[in-house]
Amino acid sequence: MSSILKLDGLSRSFGAVTVADSLSYELAQGEALGVIGPNGAGKTSMFNLITGTLSPDAGRVEFAGRDVTSQSAASRSRMGIARSFQVPQPFSGLTVFENAMIAATQSAGLTGHEAETLCLTVLDQTELLNKANKLAGGLTLLDRKRLELTRALCAKPKLLLLDEIAGGLTEAECKSLVQTIRDIHASGVSIIWIEHVVHALLAVVERLVVIDFGRKIAEGDPHEVMDSREVKEIYLGIEADA
Amino acid sequence: MDWLNAIVQGTLLGGLYALFAAGLSLIFGVMRLVNIAHGDLIVLAAYLGLTTTVALGVHPLLALIVVVPAMAAIGYALQRGILNQTLGDDLLPPLLVTFGISVILQNALLEVYTADPQKMNAGALETASFDLGGLTLGWLPVLTMLVAIAVIAGLQWVFYRTPLGRAFRATSDNQDIAQLMGLNKAHVFGLAMALALAVTAIAGLFLGIRTSFDPSIGGGRLIFGFEAVIIGGLGNLWGTLAGGVILGVAQTIGAKIDPGWQLLAGHIVFLLILAVRPNGLFPRVAA
Q: Which family does it belong to (chain B) (predicted)?
C-alpha cells in the first residue's frame, strides 16, 4: 500500500520552545493512526504543520505522493486534507448547514444540488440534521464537536485529522462517536487521531505514535506501545520502577 | 411645510450618503479594513464617468456600463496587489497604506484633470421634478434614493443568499478556519473589494450628476460615508442606509436653521449618536 502522508524530518520551534523536532513518519493509504502525548508535546502543532497553517523550519510534508510543504492551507484543503479542532471553531455567524456548505463547495469543490445532498447526508450521519438552520454560534459543546466533524467530512477528505474530538463527551456520546469514526474509516478515509481518551482511540486505530517535546518517542502496535516503558514514564508520568 | 420639506429632501440626500457608505461598510464587514482612500475612489469613479460620457457622448447613467466594471477591476487589482499585504492583526498598516493611496489618487487626478471643478451633464434629469402632496421632489434625488435601496437590497441578497456571500461571511467570521476549508482568502477579499468599488462607481456617478466635483473633495465624501456607517452600526448594511438618511436629514435641517450650519449639524448629530450609542444604532459586529 502506498503512503498517503509522509512527514520527513519536520522541525519547528518558537524561540526556545520546540514543537516539532525532526518528526518523521508515514501513514499508509486507508490507515488509522493514533497520536498520544502529554499536553504541550506538539501534537496540535503537528496538525498545523500538516494542514499548512504553520510552516516548518526544516523538513518536508508529502501528501499523496506530492511535496506540499510550500502549498497554502487552502490548497492543501482542496487536495483532501481536513481537520477538526480540539476547541470547536465554527463560523458562528453562519447556520449549521452553511458551515457544512462552505466545506462542500470550497474544499470538496462541489456545486449546487450535489453539494447540498452531501451536506444533508453528512448532517444526518452526525445527527445535526434537525439543527441545520440554527446559527452555529448557539450550539452546545457536543453539537459544536459534531459540527467540527461534519465540516471535515463535507470536505470529502482523503486524510482526516481529528484533534481530541472525544474529550468532554459522556460515555454514550463517546461510543456513538467511535462508531461514526469507524464508519468513516471503513469508507476508505485515512485518519490521524490525537486523543487523550485512550480507550476510544484504541477502539479505532491500527497504530500508535507517542510524541513528547515535538519528538516521536514510540511507535507501533497500540497495545504494545501503551504497555511500553517510555509511555509509562513520559506520557503517564509514572516512574517505571516505582 | 418647510420643515417637512427639509426632512424629505434630507432623507433623499441620505440615499447618496448611503451609496458613499455602502462600499465602506461592506469592506469593513468582510475584512475589517478601514479604507481611507474610499472618498477619492468615489471621485475617481466620477472622473471616469465624466471621461466616458465625453468620449462616447452617452448619458452619465449609461456610463455606468463602463465605470462599474472598470472600478470593480481596479478594486480587485488593488486588493490583490497592495491591500492584502497590509492586512493582519494590526489595524495601522492598512490605514497608512490607504491614506497613501488617497494622496496618490488626489494628485494623479489633479495631474490628469486639473483642479477645475467639473460636472456631468445629465440633461433634463437634473432639474425634472414632480409634486407630491404639496412637496416638490426632484427626480434625481428620488432616483438616487431608489438606487441606494436597490444597491443595499442587492448587497444584502448577495451576502445572505449566494455562495459568494457565504464565503464572505465565513471569511469574515474566521479567516484561518476559512482557509482550512479551502477558501482562498486573498481571492475572496479581492472579490469583496471589487464589489465594494462597483458600488462606489454608482456613488461616484450620482455625485457627479448632482454636484460639481474636483480632485480635492474625496475627504469630505469619506467623512460622510464614515458617519453614515458608524451611525447605522458597523457591518450592518440596512443600518448604513438609515445612517445616511439621519445624516442627510440633520444636514438639511441644519441648513434650514442657518445655511452655514449644514455640515456642522450633520457632524453634531453624528457626535451625539456616538456619545449615546458608541456602537451605532443597529450594530451587527460585536466590538
A: Belongs to the binding-protein-dependent transport system permease family. LivHM subfamily.
